[in-house]
Design a protein that fits this description.
Helix content is about 35%, strand content about 20%. By secondary structure, the protein is α/β, with parallel strands linked by helices. Strands 6-5-4-3-2-1-22-23 form an 8-stranded mixed sheet. Strands 7-8-9-10-11-20-21 form a 7-stranded mixed sheet, covered by helices on one side. Helix 3 runs antiparallel to helix 7.
Length: about 525
């Protein structure tokens, strides 16, 4: 077998691995790039989509599944193997995504028409999504599936509902794709399944460079933040991924309600058109959730139902809460790249009694990353707005394993596989690699486009050149250098930043050699 890393290599998003045997080609995941790399989604695939035998999907999150409809649009007609909850979650996420794409394309084309520019097309359409959904083949956990020349088994990864690690065998070797691994003894899911043997393991490293806070400390920080907002008569904004993270936040709010921390009349809103649909799927497959959550269902209770929690669907209902002075608002997108959270930020981020709680990973190039990095102002929906809200980051709510959790999962292998470290910013992957090496494991960090021959243990040179849309890059460079030149001419750059300007100049000279 030959595996080529087409995404999530030296980066967190865009998971896509091409697996080639003598007779067939398979994809493990086909996700969208997010943040600064979003333009890559428009690039053509480096392989012929019609040549792919089937797609093996670890879970529904868009950075793992979001380009599958584009794959179908470009000619793929094979089967897509996934667990039943993953299939049902993909339907919700893809239909919402294509709706947003359609609206954004219409907006851009109105602008292009006025400017005399050519029209643009969305990444994919409703028809592509429906065709992709028809190609799904549901698979249960722990059963071996025989494909043309490989065998595949899905194991519970405990990341989100239906998430999987994937075991793949042929006659000569075995490779495991971790997918996204959940926390050990997590709140939403129990510990991930351990796998005993492999020759190679492709392992994620989102938080390979750090340890999460303890559950006790995480809950205390969350409680303290909520209590501060109540005392200050302000709002709490929680940008959240709609799948799993939002349900976790709702459950934590339920615990605060049960403990008497939340006043009986304190309003809470899950402001997401698809929020209730996703939560209903979590209720439907509650047997796959943690023992802690299942105990509620055994007592005929619902861990995702709280007095004064309102699931909002319509735009009008969403707009109404802009006029409220207090309350908790959970809304997507989790990285503040779009969705209703932008409206709530615009109306509240400039207020000193607003609290913003980030409960998930924020990719480079996203508004969420800018806010947690401490910028004083941010461009939100075309308007430059001062940031005076109090900003909190609670990584303990993450559905991703931390460094210790990843090591615990890796030590479940009874032999000594090579660990191929992906799905992380480079520094995070490097630190995890060093930790594994100190434990005696062989590791490798691929770059996008590299391949490994799993039989010969040979690493190829990069086959896929990075795809960069130069037009927006040139426009941005032109604008930034124009502004920099103007500031230098009127001496408005602080003295302490002149060293940065000199460093940029030296870097440009090096690039231009």
């Amino acid at each position: 077998m030959l595996v080529t890393f087409l995404g999530a290599a030296g980066e967190v998003t865009g998971s896509c691995y091409l697996l080639e045997t003598d007779r067939c080609k398979y994809l493990v995941d086909c996700g969208t790039f997010q943040g600064k790399d979003e333009e890559r989604n428009n690039a053509s695939f480096s392989f012929l989509p019609s040549s792919i035998e089937s797609v093996i999907l670890t879970h529904a999150h868009l950075d793992h599944s979001g380009r599958i409809p584009k794959l179908v649009k470009d000619g793929f007609r094979g089967k897509i193997y996934a667990t039943i909850p993953t299939i049902e979650l993909c339907e919700i996420l893809w239909l919402d995504t294509v709706k947003l794409m359609r609206e954004e394309t219409e907006r851009i084309n109105r602008k292009n028409k006025r400017a005399g520019k050519s029209m643009t097309e969305p990444l994919y359409t409703d028809e592509d999504v429906q065709l992709a959904l028809s190609l799904f083949e549901p698979v249960p956990y722990d059963s071996i599936i025989n494909l043309k020349d490989i065998r595949v088994r899905f194991r519970d990864a405990s990341h989100v509902l239906g998430s999987s690690s994937i075991e793949v065998w042929d006659e000569e070797t075995k490779i495991v794709f971790s997918g996204d691994i959940g926390q050990w003894e997590g709140v939403m899911n129990d510990s991930p399944a351990l796998i005993e043997q492999a020759d190679y393991v492709v392992i994620e490293s989102t938080y390979g460079d750090r340890l999460h806070r303890s559950l006790e400390d995480t809950r205390k920080e969350f409680k303290d933040t909520i209590q501060s907002a109540i005392l200050e008569k302000g709002k709490v904004l929680i940008p959240s991924f709609v799948v799993d993270r939002a349900q976790r936040v709702i459950y934590e709010l339920k615990l605060l309600k049960e403990a008497g921390i939340l006043p009986g009349n304190f309003p809470m809103y899950f402001d997401s058109p698809m929020g209730k649909k996703v939560t209903d799927i979590y209720r439907k497959y509650s047997n796959l959730l943690s023992g802690e959550l299942q105990r509620y269902y055994l007592n005929s209770e619902d861990p995702f139902d709280i007095e004064n929690l309102h699931y909002l669907v319509s735009v009008d209902d969403s707009k109404k809460i802009n006029d409220l002075d207090r309350g908790i608002v959970i809304a997507g997108s989790g990285m503040c790249t779009g969705g209703r959270i932008l409206h709530h930020l615009k109306h509240n981020i400039w207020k000193e009694n607003t609290h913003i709680i980030f409960v998930g990973y924020q990719a480079y190039g996203t508004l969420g990353r800018e806010i947690i990095n401490g910028v004083k102002t941010a461009n939100i929906m075309g308007e430059e707005i001062a940031i005076k809200a109090k900003v909190h980051t609670i990584n303990g709510f993450s559905a991703h394993a931390d460094q210790n959790d990843l090591l615990s999962w890796a030590e479940g292998f009874q032999n000594r596989p090579m660990f191929i470290i992906t799905h992380g910013e480079l520094n995070s992957s490097k630190i995890l690699s060093e930790v594994f090496r100190l434990k005696g494991y062989e590791t490798f960090i691929p770059v996008r486009g590299q391949s490994i021959d799993l039989v010969k243990r040979e690493v190829s040179s990069v086959k896929v050149a990075p795809s960069i849309d130069l037009e927006p890059l040139l426009v941005e460079l032109d604008r930034e250098f124009f502004n920099l030149k103007a500031k230098l001419e009127d001496s408005s750059i602080p003295v302490e930043k002149l060293g940065v300007v000199q460093a940029i100049l030296l870097l440009l000279k090096e690039v231009n050699k």
